[in-house]
Amino acid sequence: MAKLPSITVTTLDRARLYALLDRQQEDSDEVDHLYAELERAHIVAPDELPQGTVCLGSRVRFCETATGKIHQRVLALPGDMALYPDAISILSPAGAALLGLSVGDTIDWPYRNRTLHLQLLDVLPAEQQ
């Protein structure tokens, strides 16, 4: 991967993600990348997460810079996908890439035989349906 932006993850999200990753039956690039992301993350208490930083349950607006397409999704664990009609799984390439980013950050994330180029535009609280 190219130079990665710094990321911040809460202690709660880290615990939930390690529990999820430890239960995964098969190896995948996303699982490996998420482990690496958690290892390099700055970890804070949930009430210390800086505003504008992506955590599980955040509504994120991001741009695929290669295409200019803008998406708005809620970052969710696989078991929480039904809570949000516009959820994106933390186990998807874009979902894993967005974890811990701050508004304005860009990241290049490997995906199959190409690279996703993402820019985080905004972080809003998610509202469950």
UniProtKB/TrEMBL annotation:
The keyword Disulfide bond does not apply. It comes from Alcanivorax sediminis. Keywords: Kinase, Transferase. InterPro entries: GreA/GreB_C_sf, Rnk_N, Tscrpt_elong_fac_GreA/B_C, Tscrpt_elong_fac_GreA/B_fam. Pfam families: GreA_GreB (PF01272), Rnk_N (PF14760). One of its GO terms (biological process) is DNA-templated transcription elongation. Residues 5-44 form the Regulator of nucleoside diphosphate kinase N-terminal domain. SUPFAM superfamilies: FKBP-like. This is Nucleoside diphosphate kinase regulator. Gene3D superfamilies: 1.10.286.20, Transcription elongation factor, GreA/GreB, C-terminal domain (3.10.50.30). One of its GO terms (molecular function) is DNA binding. The keyword Transferase applies. Residues 50-123 form the Transcription elongation factor GreA/GreB C-terminal domain.
